[in-house]
UniProtKB/TrEMBL annotation:
Annotated family: Belongs to the HAD-like hydrolase superfamily. SerB family.
CDD domains associated with the record: HAD_PSP_eu (cd04309)
Name of the protein this chain belongs to: phosphoserine phosphatase
One Gene Ontology term of the molecular function aspect: L-phosphoserine phosphatase activity
NCBIfam families given in the database record: HAD-SF-IB, serB
Signal sequence annotation: none
One BP annotation, GO: L-serine biosynthetic process
Record organism: Nicotiana tabacum (Common tobacco)
UniProt gene name: LOC107780735
Keyword list, A-Z: Amino-acid biosynthesis, Hydrolase, Magnesium, Metal-binding, Serine biosynthesis
Active site, per annotation: D87, D89
EC number, as in UniProt: 3.1.3.3
Entries under InterPro entries matching the protein: AB_hydrolase_fold (IPR029058), Epox_hydrolase-like (IPR000639), HAD-like_SerB (IPR050582), HAD-like_sf (IPR036412), HAD_sf (IPR023214), PSP (IPR004469)
Pathway assigned in UniProt: Amino-acid biosynthesis; L-serine biosynthesis; L-serine from 3-phospho-D-glycerate: step 3/3
Amino acid sequence: MEGLMSFQAQSVRAVSREQSSVPLPTFSSKITRVSVQPIGMVRNSKLFNSFVASVQPVEASAVTPFDNTLPSKVLDVWQNASAVCFDVDSTVCIDEGIDEFAEFCGAGKAVAEWTARAMNGSVPFEDALAARLSLINPSLSQLQDFLKRPPRLSPGIDLLVKKLKDKKKDVYLVSGGFRQMINPVASILGIPLENIFANQMLFGSNGESAGFDKNEPTSRSGGKPTAVQQIKKAHGYKSVVMIGDGATDLEARMPGGADLFICYGGVQLRESVAAKADWLVFNFKDLINSLENWELTAPFRGCKIQVPTKFVVGDLDATYNVPGTKEYIHNGGFKKEVPNWQEGVVMEEVAHFINQEKPDEINAHIYDFIQRF
């Protein structure tokens, strides 16, 4: 979302929704010139209703969640977590592994429909898993041939896992997918195989499909919460974070389970899941930045934008049209974080990069704003 005008000492560059999720607030005591700054999506309350003005670092946006009552709560849990559990399909990897395997075996369309229903929480997970495996009906040789294809990792996940390990945080893969497909992913990322909680395909003596191991906790609804609870209890972790894209990942946030759920929307954005997340991100670089920069920015957590401010946004901006955003901006939520907000402008037929799409109009808005002082 483009266009927060305020007196700041630092220039910024625009960042698209694909590049980042939540920019980091920067504050200046000197009134030197006007800068145009993006607005990012942050800590969720009911929908996506908490935003904060920001300035971009050089490489990507650093992230800080912003809650009206406890601004540092989500960030503190993330930064101080003892362990982080990742979903695999559409999170660590850009594919849904079972869908790719189904396509390889000639049952792609039917299986993908079941996957979508399972990830949105509309059917019990164990029913969806059994139905998909029955449709695929794979042989052991088919699985072995499929596994010759290298897994496709989401951009930045290798760097994020490395950063977490450097910070002495344990990393787990908790998935409703199959262990046979996840083992290679763990090996690439340097995650111990014993840190995988996933399902197991079973085969008969002649290599024919024999279903799956129903004793695995992730083979049924409520399985991910059970797995995270087991992880937390077994190792005595003080706090655990779950990162994923689906309803089963959201379920892991519960007493005794995950203390924080971060919805990753970089591959699939499931609105029903994102709406209930503690934090929505589109880029793993944001999570990396939050681990790198939090000590330096700690004094600014909870700060409000106190300088005179004019907000300009395009009506076609994807972030502006996320459910809950308009209500937050126009019904008083934004004003709480930017108490000296003096004017809001919604430009018609403009998307994210309004300073490039309509430079003359933006310059006029900036000049008009400066003239008031």
